[in-house]
Amino acid sequence: MPIAALITLAVALAYFIVTTTADLYPFNNTREATAEEKRAELLVNVPILAAPIVLLVLGWTLSLPVLAVIGGAIELIAAIGGLLLWWMPYLAGVTMPWATAGAGLTWDDLHQRTYAHTVIVLPRIGDRPRPNLEHMILHALFIVAGVLTIIAATTL
């Protein structure tokens, strides 16, 4: 089980990096993100998403399952943050206060410029921004990776 968790964590991290930096339009729309937005996204999130990998490997190597549990918890917290960021505006019309921190624009503006023209499979709810497929896959990867990592901790 630790191998499955490790692979899933690595896939989630790689998926995040690729979809943040590579133009895969219409799956994503990085061409509309500024270099500063991409850099900020990577600087904030790559260390957070790499930490569970390091913690799982350390927990495995040192026979300290608590490290893997902490890694899994970090991955699940990242998932919760993503779910709040994307699903609260869609389902409840509520934008997280940190959604565009320091960007000088609203979540609606950022979503309209960057995400609204990507692949979206969800039905409209009024004029609320909808999660795109790219992020739905990312959040699923985070959840699966976090759960597998916590399960893997029981086998260390």
How would you describe this structure to a colleague?
This protein has 156 residues and is mainly α. Helix content is 67%, strand content 0%. The chain is built from five helices and no strands. α1 (2-21) packs antiparallel against α2 (35-62), α1 runs antiparallel to α5 and α2 (35-62) runs antiparallel to α3. The radius of gyration is 16 Å and the shape is elongated. It starts with a helix and ends with a helix. The mean pLDDT is 94.
TL;DR?
By secondary structure, this protein is mostly helical.
List the helices and strands and how they pair.
Elements lengths: L1 H20 L13 H28 L2 H27 L15 H9 L17 H21 L3
Helix pairs in contact: 1-2, 1-5, 2-3, 2-5, 3-5
Structural class: mainly alpha
Mean pLDDT: 94
Q: What is the CA–CA distance across the termini?
A: 9 Å
Uncertain residue ranges: none
Count of separate structural domains: 1
- What is the tally of helical segments? 5
